[in-house]
Amino acid sequence: MKIVYQTRWEHPGGAVYEYALELGASGEHALVAGSAAEIFYAACSAGDDIQDGDASEYMECSYALQLNAQAQLMALVTGRIRAITTLPQDTFDPHEALVFMLTGQRMELCRGDDWNVGDYMFVARASAGMEYRSILRMAVMAYLADNRMGAERGLMEAVEALGVWVGMGLQLYADARTKDERLFSFSDAEIAKMKLDVIEGIRKTSDSLTEISNRTVKMTTHAEQLICLLENIL
């Protein structure tokens, strides 16, 4: 519970709950998806902190027990995902996204003097991008559990694509807000180009999603709000 409490200010679960309801999921399935997203985010954050040594600030136990706590969270996520899975192609393994995230972070931690913009964007996609791809997918899974016959073609793929760019945008915004050296080791021109690329990615995938479904207003509105944050901070 300390891990979930540590990440309480982010609340992706609340957003997923709202997205699922707007899509047409039942309250029960929307709640399952929201709780899965919240716990998944906490598990990913714990993995990040365990790998870079920050977990000891709120997990006062051995390294082995820290890993055990994270594994317990991922087991809870897997159980909730199964509760909203109707067909095998709808589901996914949350551990896959966790591996992507940890691999991206490891690349960042081991970066050398040749660290460049391409590396930064790769890490942002592998970590936050894949994480939010999974988080937004949960809202669609809740919807499909109740509305398989009426589901829009291509909805899942469109939401996942938006999730990747939203995650990358959130990573860029977080690094800009904290003046992280991973970002500010680049020139102003390079940072500006990255910002424009991410904003374009968010806009294109948001527009594509709007063309597929008229029940994703909250999701695309939040994406537009992220664009405003990026424009104002960089």
Q: What's the helix and strand layout?
A:
Elements: H1 2-6, H2 12-23, H3 27-52, H4 63-83, H5 94-109, H6 117-147, H7 155-177, H8 181-184, H9 188-212, H10 217-233
Helix pairs in contact: 2-3, 2-6, 3-4, 3-5, 3-6, 5-6, 6-7, 7-9, 7-10, 9-10
List keywords for this structure.
mainly alpha; 10 helices; single chain; Farnesyl Diphosphate Synthase; 234 residues; 0% strand; disordered N terminus; globular
Structure description:
This protein has ten helices and no strands. With 234 residues, the protein is mostly helical. It has a single domain (2-233), classed as Orthogonal Bundle (Farnesyl Diphosphate Synthase). The longest helix is centred in the middle third of the chain and has 31 residues, at 117-147.
Can you give me a brief rundown of this structure?
With 234 residues, the chain is mainly alpha-helical. It has helices at 2-6, 12-23, 27-52, 63-83, 94-109, 117-147, 155-177, 181-184, 188-212, 217-233.
List unreliable stretches of 5+ residues.
1-9
- For the record, give the distance between the C-alpha atoms at the N and C termini, rounded to a whole number: 35 Å
Record field, number of beta strands: 0
**Secondary-structure-derived class:** mainly alpha
How many DSSP H or I helices? Answer: 10
How much β-strand is present in the residues? under 5%
Shape verdict: globular
Radius of gyration: 18 Å
Question: According to CATH, what is the topology?
Answer: Farnesyl Diphosphate Synthase
